[in-house]
Structures are given as C-alpha cells and as structure tokens.
Write a structure and sequence with these properties.
elongated; alpha+beta; two-stranded antiparallel sheet; single chain
C-alpha cells in the first residue's frame, strides 16, 4: 500500500493503522481515496474508490445529514446512499446512528407505540360468588369430521 506524497516519495501505511485494510491512495487531485480490488469494475470512479472522510468530522456530519434528510430512512439505507455517492466514512456506522438520533422527524415517526391502559373490571366480575354460578359452554368448538378414508383408516380434520 503506497501513495505518493507531496515530495513524490512513496509512503506506506503501517499495518497497525486502521486505514491499512482500506488500501488508501492519493488521486491526481490530492484526495485520499479507498483502494481495493475494483479497479477493473465498470463502476464510476467515485464508487470504485470513495473519498475517505475521518470520523467525528464536521464534513462527515454534513454529508450524513444531507443523505439522511432526502428520505429519512434507517441507518443501513442512509449509509448505503453515502457510499453510493462516493464517500467512505471512517466509523460511518456510528456517524449515521448519531445523525439518526438527532433527527426530530425520525424520532416522531419511530417513537414508542402508545399503549392503552385497561379499563377497570365491572362490578359483577369482582363480586365473590360460589363456584359455577356463571358457566359458559362453547357450542361452536372445533368438530372432528372424517374427511376421507385412507388405507390405514380415516383421516380426520378439524372444522
């Protein structure tokens, strides 16, 4: 992994760096981009080699806010839209989640469901009465009906 610095001397990224696995390089405009194995793909240059943007950066917050407010979608769709636009946010999962937690519209849409409290029981349900004073009988229960004869007997079905 090498890129050319301003002094035209190749530099390498240390293996201990978080950027090591991204195979970064500096393009002709001096922008740090993600390398990778997509050099021969038929994608646009920005999709093959997205711009690296550091985490906890104001530009990262602005990009995230822009792509989130287009449709107020969840974390994965917002992060996918950012990557498709040609940006690679380091720590993007946390950056997008932070933006979603700040969004008032999303908080209103994805707020907790309101639960209805149960009403008080009627007086006749709380009276002390002897057992079997009120009895119910289900006459519409499942009836077993012989639907067809088989070699081993009959096949029953609930109806």
């Amino acid at each position: 992994m090498r890129w050319i610095s301003e002094s035209n001397k190749p530099e390498t990224v240390k293996k201990s760096s978080k950027l090591y696995h991204l195979d970064p390089f500096v393009d002709d405009s001096g922008v740090l981009r993600v390398g990778g194995r997509l050099r021969r793909a038929t994608l646009e240059f920005g999709e093959k080699h997205p711009v690296l943007i550091p985490k906890k950066n104001h530009v990262a917050d602005l990009i995230t806010r822009h792509y989130h407010r287009q449709a107020h979608q969840g974390r994965q769709i917002t992060h996918g839209a950012i990557r498709q636009a040609g940006f690679w946010l380091i720590g993007g999962h946390n950056t997008v989640t932070r933006e979603l937690n700040k969004c008032v519209t999303c908080k209103k849409l994805r707020g907790p469901m309101i639960e209805q409290r149960m009403a008080d029981l009627p007086a006749n349900r709380t009276e002390v009465t002897p057992p079997f004073t009120n009895v119910g009988f289900d006459v519409f229960g499942p009836w077993k009906i012989r639907s067809r004869k088989t070699c081993g007997g009959a096949a029953n079905a609930k109806h």
